[in-house]
Each structure stands twice: as structure tokens, then as C-alpha cells.
């Protein structure tokens, strides 16, 4: 079986001009650091052919991107065929470039009309998402072998209703519970609709259809080693954050909540005792420390009533990314081991680092792939790796400052330039020849840079 060597992006972060979604409005109200606006983003909307060529130049065999619901259905019930055609063209371009498309249906942004009705707290939201899924499936589903229904529903609920870093940024644990329920229902509906696709076309027509979702996972740890309250809290965070969604889509347990702190969501009957995923996507970046009591450097993660609970992103002296996130490759292995108990294929749907000088990324890439290699060698079923991200992009509340791209984007000219780590990734992929990552093939960091990676010109 060919290992999926890929890179990931999302619509709002790269396309530009997504004026009909909730983020566009939120940005305009000054919620992004430095007053940034997504605006033209990386202008991918006009440069997708060039961008897919850049992806193919790295030797990738897959590309993960998302479909912007607010383009496809800018007003409730009004479908924009030209938007669907654009996504079909994107998928066909993937085929041309030998990139197996992994299509994400929801990557944080929702149409503004839905936001006005309460987003996923609205009782009909799952049905609306099902309608959107159906349209996409009809229009381009025949060409798509890999689907990711929802990107990080755990982060959405946290950001929207508990921690205030996503619109509507209200603190309301009850709404968090309702949104979790409706998102699960939305996922299940989409899972079923996508599996109804009968006709398959293109180079991957006979590849088994796989539908999953992407779970953000953090290796929570107590800030102070062996501190009793922090140790308990770290365990609680792991359960609430890392395992609630995998447990639910595996049909095991629906436990979106924390006893006494965040109310539990009402159960979704359709998901009980039934597995509704063919793979689980792991989006893993870092470790986060849980702190109890007033601490310096602590940010408010989720205001659990008035409990003095917070998180921080590093201990004194640790090496960190431009966002202050600690480098912690061992966490990747731990997350794989943690989900391995579900005995379902795993795909690393995101992993990357904000590093504008590209000083840490080569090591980050190499050491995280080594962890994956070790886990595969131990028998864990990891099918692919998508680096976040193909391009620098609009990093949500942080604006354009954090640079996650294998390709650097000049936001003045929109020129794309490969970073050293892009060349290193290309070398790694070439060395593996479609096989899974192997420690011995990853061991030398100072790989010779392959010639011929083009710098895309401003055009
Ligand atoms: C999200 C991406 C984001 C990345 C880096 C992930 O949680 O899916 O959209 O850019 O983290 O923060």
C-alpha cells in the first residue's frame, strides 16, 4: 500500500476573498492580532494550478484542502455552481498532478447566514451541513477517494463557546454541549452521504473510499511534575480534548463534557454502537502544560467556572516555535499509541511549525517522522502524513505573522519560494519511494538539497 505523503491547507487560510463566512465579519470587527484581515490571503483562488504544481514538485502523492461552504452556499439554499466548478477544477488538477485529493468539508469557517442562526447550536445545522455535503458529493464526489468531514470539532467548540478565540467567542458551556452534539450529528450524516457515492472516476476510482475526521491532539502535561492537582487536570484535559471525538465516532461513548464543569451533550442515537469513520486524522503540533493556581505565562484556555486553571506552552528554557509552542516529537508517538487502541487506520492530517526563519522546521519534520516510523515499526496502522502547511497562510487569530509554509509567501507579490525544509521534505519523500517512513532513511539531517525546486514567480 502506498503511504500518503502530503501537505495540507484550508480554504479560508489561503484562498482569499471568502467574504460570506463568519470569520470575514469577525476579522472586520478587529478581532485579529494587529487588526489583520484575511483579504486576498495567498490568492490561491487565482493560483491553484501553480500551487498544485509546487505540491507535485515536492514529490507529494496527496494534497489535503477544504471546501469553503460559504462559497458554495453563500445564502441559505442558494447554490453557486461556479464555486462548485472551481473545486471540481481543483480536484481534476490534483488528478493531473498525481495528488490524491483529501477533501475536508468544514475547516472552522461557516457561512454567515448560518452563523446568524447560531452556527452549530442551531437545531437544523446538521441537516444544513448534510445538504452541503450532498451538493459537493454530487458535483465532485466521483473523483475523491479521501474525505475529512470536520476539521478539529474539539477546537471549534472550545474556540467558539469556551475560550473565545473563534467567532462568536461567547463563553457558554451549555452551548458548547449543544454544538458538540450537532457537530457529531453533522459528521454522521456526512459519513453516510459520502458512502452513498456509487460512481467513482479517475485514477483512484478503485481505491477504497475512506471517510474520517481530523482530531486536534495535544500532549497535555502538568506544569509542575508530580503536582497532584495539575496531574489530575492534565488527565482530565486529555480525556475531554483528545479522546471524546474518537470515542464518539468509533461508536463507543459520547462524552463531550467534563463532570461538574462543562455539561455533557445529549446523546446522538444514530452514532451509538456504530463506527462512523474509516480513519481517524491526527492533527498534532505540541505539548501544553496545565497549571493550577495563579502562574506567570499562563493563558486562559477555558474558563472553567472560577477555577484558577490555565495552560502554558513551554517550561523555562525549552526550545519553542515562533508561536511559543514547545518542540515535543515524542508526543506524536504518544498520540498514535493512544488512538491505536481503537484499531482503526490513522492518518496524520496535520503536523507543522511556525518558524519564519526555517531554523527548527527541518529538525521538527525529521523527528516527528521518526516517531511515526517507530510507531509503524511497532505495528501501528498509520497510513499517511500531511505537513501543515504547503504555503504560509492566514493563521486565524494570529493573522499573517506565523509562518507555517513549506513555501514562503510574499504577501506583496504573492511569489512563492521553497524553504530549505521543502527541499528536505522532497528528499525524504524521494528516498522512501512511496513507502512508509523508516527511521534509517530519516537519520541524516544534512541531506543534500535536490536541484530544480522552482521558485514560483509573481504573476
Ligand atoms: C488548524 C489549522 C491551523 C494550525 C496551526 C490547526 O489546529 O487546523 O487551521 O493553521 O492548527 O495553528
Question: Brief description of this entry?
Answer:
It is built from 14 helices and eleven strands. With 459 residues, the chain is α/β, with parallel strands linked by helices.
CATH-level-4 superfamily name: Glycosidases
Helix/strand structural class: alpha/beta
CATH topology: TIM Barrel
Sheet with the most strands, sense and barrel status: 8 strands, parallel, barrel
The assigned CATH architecture is Alpha-Beta Barrel
- Tell me, rounded to a whole number, the average pLDDT: 94
Structural topology:
Elements: E1 4-8, H1 11-14, H2 22-28, H3 44-57, E2 62-66, H4 69-72, H5 81-96, E3 100-106, H6 112-116, H7 125-140, E4 146-151, H8 153-161, H9 173-195, E5 210-222, H10 228-249, E6 279-292, E7 309-312, H11 330-340, E8 346-350, H12 361-377, E9 382-388, E10 407-409, E11 416-418, H13 420-432, H14 439-442
Parallel strand pairs: 1-2, 1-9, 2-3, 3-4, 4-5, 5-6, 6-8, 8-9
Antiparallel strand pairs: 6-7, 10-11
Helix pairs in contact: 5-7, 7-9, 8-9, 11-12
The protein binds beta-D-glucopyranose (BGC).
The site of beta-D-glucopyranose (BGC) has 10 residues, from loops.
Structure description:
With 459 residues, the chain is α/β, with parallel strands linked by helices. The chain has a single domain, classed as TIM Barrel (Alpha-Beta Barrel). The protein contains 14 helices and 11 strands. It has helices at residues 11-14, 22-28, 44-57, 69-72, 81-96, 112-116, 125-140, 153-161, 173-195, 228-249, 330-340, 361-377, 420-432, 439-442; strands spanning 4-8, 62-66, 100-106, 146-151, 210-222, 279-292, 309-312, 346-350, 382-388, 407-409, 416-418. The strands form 2 sheets. An 8-stranded parallel β-barrel has the order 1-2-3-4-5-6-8-9, surrounded by 6 helices. Strands 10-11 form a two-stranded antiparallel ribbon. The two termini are 39 Å apart. Beta-D-glucopyranose binds at residues 10, 13, 151-152, 155, 216, 283, 350, 388, 395.
